[in-house]
Amino acid sequence: MLPVVALVGRPNVGKSTLFNVLTRSREALVADLPGVTRDRHYGVCRLGDAPFVLVDTGGLSGDEDGLDGLTARQVRLAIEEADVVVFLVDARDGLMAQDHAILGELRRTGKPMLLAVNKTDGLDEMVAMADFAALGFADSLPLAAAHSRGTDTLMQALKPLLPEYVAPEEETKHDDGIRVAILGRPNAGKSTLVNRLLGEERVIVSDVAGTTRDAIRVPLERDGRKYTLIDTAGVRRRARVEEAVEKFSVIKTLQAIAAAQVCVVMVDARENLADQDLTLIGHVLDEGRALVIAVNKWDDMEPYDREQCQRALDRRLEFVGWAKRVFISALHGSGLRELMSAVNRAHASANCTMTASQLTRTLEKAYEGYQPPLVRGHAPKLRYAHPGGHNPPTIVVHGTRTKHIAPAYRRYLENTFRKRYRLEGTPVRIEFRDSENPYAGRRNELTDSQKRKRQRMIRNAKRRKN
């Protein structure tokens, strides 16, 4: 296993900024507000040829109640699995009582530690570092994470503290498995589902809406298959989004949709299907991702309420009738096997292998069964089809006058291909292309006899006119 390094400190000392710099990514959400990070965030850094795992954690505020207490629990889990802890402090704030409290807790763990003094840019470095001499570290490292200053020194200081990493003899290609994004409105049960699938308290779960802010990626292996679960922040209507942090969280969610292969949209069965749920599904369709609808909190509902819920889903989700609907309880774990089976089927459909000969035969049968309506007295001709890509399956149809084909006929072809290949849980895109006229732009040159005949016709026309 790779060595693990945890970044620990008070809120708003720059842990997420340093995480992004060291991992050379923008995975962690960064804002000039305390308490933005709540869950553990993992990334891989390279120290020469020896990689290690870096863990970004939430800030320890000293409060053990509510979300602060749940965040502190996630930090302690990160410290427990770490090989080295980087204790981050803020040079602009100076040494604070909470720094002493955090340091005391870290020393009781017996883990190797480094002291990194961040935000030294624009300050007298010697004066800023002298304030933290009372913590008792032989060496403290000045940093300016926002400007990537001092990070090379930090990496070199980590090198002797990390356990030796022995690379495997046969380097295999890293496989993240199926990337599954868990989407939904706030408090729909996304984090509860992730924890239930993992069998551990990996992300914070709270009754407070908007607990999750970052898009957290978590590896999962279930029934011999690998997955990467992406727990996302709940998305509300734009009119209700006021805080800048929530706006960035929504952007992270949209990026997670683009990065995923299968999207699971969670719907609260005890609430009416909201317009925001449909908007999320619309984003999934725009990205062309496979889709599974998970109806959560199905347990303890009365038969009448369940019937009304199903009718509402049938009525409002008619435009994605091809998406599998699974009724689950993330809290109690019911329906999770059916959910993962639906994810597997959707992923297989999105990456279905098609051949040009099979597609063309299917197109010919569909054309014989029902021809497109006439356009100005002429019927569009569909000649052949071939695959145009995966995830989503894209079918390119060549013919004439295809620009005038009605949307209803496009849906007819889509349903025909979907039935032929048993495509479930994935959108199907059909692109029409007009065949080019081989004589377009070519001028017909007249022979000498044709030119003489033309001249005679012009003279005769003038005589008749006179």
UniProtKB/TrEMBL annotation:
<comment type="similarity">
    <text>Belongs to the TRAFAC class TrmE-Era-EngA-EngB-Septin-like GTPase superfamily. EngA (Der) GTPase family.</text>
</comment>
<feature type="binding site">
    <location>
        <begin position="56"/>
        <end position="60"/>
    </location>
    <ligand>
        <name>GTP 1</name>
    </ligand>
</feature>
<feature type="binding site">
    <location>
        <begin position="296"/>
        <end position="299"/>
    </location>
    <ligand>
        <name>GTP 2</name>
    </ligand>
</feature>
<feature type="compositionally biased region" description="Basic and acidic residues">
    <location>
        <begin position="435"/>
        <end position="450"/>
    </location>
</feature>
<keyword id="KW-0690">Ribosome biogenesis</keyword>
<protein>
    <recommendedName>
        <fullName>GTPase Der</fullName>
    </recommendedName>
</protein>
<keyword id="KW-0547">Nucleotide-binding</keyword>
<dbReference type="GO" id="GO:0043022">
    <property type="term" value="F:ribosome binding"/>
</dbReference>
<dbReference type="InterPro" id="IPR003593">
    <property type="entry name" value="AAA+_ATPase"/>
</dbReference>
<feature type="binding site">
    <location>
        <begin position="9"/>
        <end position="16"/>
    </location>
    <ligand>
        <name>GTP 1</name>
    </ligand>
</feature>
<feature type="region of interest" description="Disordered">
    <location>
        <begin position="435"/>
        <end position="466"/>
    </location>
</feature>
<dbReference type="InterPro" id="IPR031166">
    <property type="entry name" value="G_ENGA"/>
</dbReference>
<dbReference type="InterPro" id="IPR015946">
    <property type="entry name" value="KH_dom-like_a/b"/>
</dbReference>
<dbReference type="InterPro" id="IPR027417">
    <property type="entry name" value="P-loop_NTPase"/>
</dbReference>
<keyword id="KW-0677">Repeat</keyword>
<dbReference type="GO" id="GO:0005525">
    <property type="term" value="F:GTP binding"/>
</dbReference>
<dbReference type="InterPro" id="IPR032859">
    <property type="entry name" value="KH_dom-like"/>
</dbReference>
<dbReference type="InterPro" id="IPR016484">
    <property type="entry name" value="GTPase_Der"/>
</dbReference>
<dbReference type="GO" id="GO:0042254">
    <property type="term" value="P:ribosome biogenesis"/>
</dbReference>
<keyword id="KW-0342">GTP-binding</keyword>
<comment type="subunit">
    <text>Associates with the 50S ribosomal subunit.</text>
</comment>
<feature type="binding site">
    <location>
        <begin position="118"/>
        <end position="121"/>
    </location>
    <ligand>
        <name>GTP 1</name>
    </ligand>
</feature>
<dbReference type="InterPro" id="IPR005225">
    <property type="entry name" value="Small_GTP-bd"/>
</dbReference>
<feature type="binding site">
    <location>
        <begin position="231"/>
        <end position="235"/>
    </location>
    <ligand>
        <name>GTP 2</name>
    </ligand>
</feature>
<dbReference type="InterPro" id="IPR006073">
    <property type="entry name" value="GTP-bd"/>
</dbReference>
<feature type="domain" description="EngA-type G">
    <location>
        <begin position="178"/>
        <end position="351"/>
    </location>
</feature>
<dbReference type="Pfam" id="PF01926">
    <property type="entry name" value="MMR_HSR1"/>
</dbReference>
<feature type="compositionally biased region" description="Basic residues">
    <location>
        <begin position="451"/>
        <end position="466"/>
    </location>
</feature>
<feature type="domain" description="EngA-type G">
    <location>
        <begin position="3"/>
        <end position="166"/>
    </location>
</feature>
<feature type="binding site">
    <location>
        <begin position="184"/>
        <end position="191"/>
    </location>
    <ligand>
        <name>GTP 2</name>
    </ligand>
</feature>
<comment type="function">
    <text>GTPase that plays an essential role in the late steps of ribosome biogenesis.</text>
</comment>
<dbReference type="Pfam" id="PF14714">
    <property type="entry name" value="KH_dom-like"/>
</dbReference>
